[in-house]
Design goal:
- The protein has about 350 residues and is α/β, with parallel strands linked by helices.
- It has 13 helices and 11 strands.
- A 6-stranded antiparallel beta sheet has the order 6-7-9-8-10-11, sandwiched between helices. It has a 5-stranded parallel beta sheet with strand order 3-2-1-4-5, sandwiched between helices.
- The termini are far apart.
Length: about 350
């Protein structure tokens, strides 16, 4: 006789309210639920996992999909971007494909997702929900407990592992039903209704888009770098030049941690100020660009700017390859934010138009 299906499930767990409730709905049927918290440069809070486990009585593991996600962005998402740079449909497909692999490795019966029919305009319309489960190859195993009664039953419901009568039929954008359910489960903490994805925010998208179009083979660390400090480009040069200037000590520490051996690090020698990082994008920087970047970085040191203005003398900036501990050389520069070449930030307006034109 065939063995009975395992009473175990994996759940996409973002830390948001819907993902918590979906997992709890299945867990209360006596089924072991393992949360999968997906992580990339654009979303994920792995440092919260231990706290979530304590709060919600769940077992949760981090799943890093950074490389796969960046490749999907670089190749352009099949189903396009949302209102900013968010590939919501392709993102969910990618997560579900990974979840299916983990589900099968664990011998689990199904995948749980907190999606609610009609809640989000791009990824939670009925047609989008059907596309997601079809393209992810999870039609037979994807359970959406909060809206299950509006959807076709899956195999785990048909074979009795999941009691369909104990699932829900929530739909629409309101949260009244979810808040009532949170009260029934006596949740000690109710997350704010926020997406938590940096790709939905215009300020981040204008930093990410130039990486996608200018980096020859963008990596996850490139986007972690795009999350850090002030972002500047000189995109009239060939190849384009990318300069990041720290805003505070936290940024400076991050820049030093993200620096690669071929990157350039700029630091004022005699005055306090930020670290700047020049990313290597396949070709060494021209000497003139290094000089200009040093002057630009020095302009963010108020004491260096004041000294240069008061004494009419240049200041010294040290340039190191890959690490401040590596041997470097000193450049004499006049702090300036209008050097040649000109360093500029991408605006959201130009990024938005380029994103629209750059889609498949």
């Amino acid at each position: 006789m065939p063995s009975a299906p395992k009473r175990r499930a994996v759940a996409l767990f973002s830390g948001g309210l819907d993902s918590i409730l979906a997992a709890k709905l299945v867990q209360e049927q006596g089924i072991e639920v393992v949360g999968l918290h997906f992580v990339s440069p654009f979303f994920g809070k792995p440092d919260e996992i231990r706290r979530w486990e304590s709060l919600h009585g769940l077992s949760i593991r981090a799943v890093d999909i950074s490389a796969l996600f960046v490749r999907m962005l670089a190749e352009r998402p099949e189903h396009g971007f949302g209102s900013v740079l968010n590939p919501c449909v392709d993102c969910k497909i990618l997560m579900l494909r990974q979840a299916r692999t983990i589900m099968e490795e664990m011998g689990a019966a199904c995948i749980i997702s907190g999606e609610v029919l009609g809640q989000r305009p791009m990824s939670q319309r009925r047609d989008a929900l059907n596309i997601i489960r079809r393209d992810a190859g999870v039609r037979d195993v994807l359970l959406r407990p909060l809206s299950a009664l509006h959807l076709d039953p899956i195999s785990a419901e048909l074979n009795g592992v999941i009691d369909r009568s104990r699932l829900l039929g929530i739909s629409g954008r309101g949260r009244k039903d979810q808040l009532a359910l949170a009260k029934r489960f006596a949740l000690r903490e109710i997350p704010a209704p926020a997406g938590g994805c940096r790709l939905t925010e215009q300020e981040n998208a204008r930093s990410y888009w130039p990486v996608l179009i200018h980096a020859p083979a963008p990596s996850a660390d490139d986007f972690r770098l795009a999350n850090t400090g002030r972002q500047f480009w000189h995109d009239d040069s060939s190849p384009p030049l990318w300069l990041i200037v720290g805003r505070n000590q936290s940024d400076n520490d991050a820049l030093m941690a993200l620096a690669r051996p071929d990157d350039l690090l700029f630091k004022s020698r005699d005055f306090p100020g930020p670290i700047a990082l020049g990313r290597f994008l396949g070709q060494p920087w021209p000497a003139g660009a290094v000089q200009s970047a040093a002057a630009f970085a020095a302009s963010y040191s108020p004491k260096a700017v004041r000294h240069a203005a008061d004494t009419n003398t240049p200041v010294a900036v040290r340039v190191h390859a890959g690490s401040l501990d590596a041997p470097g050389h000193t450049l004499s520069v006049t702090p300036s934010r209008i050097p040649t070449p000109s360093w500029r930030e991408f605006s959201w307006v130009e990024a938005r138009e380029a994103i629209r034109l750059g889609q498949r």
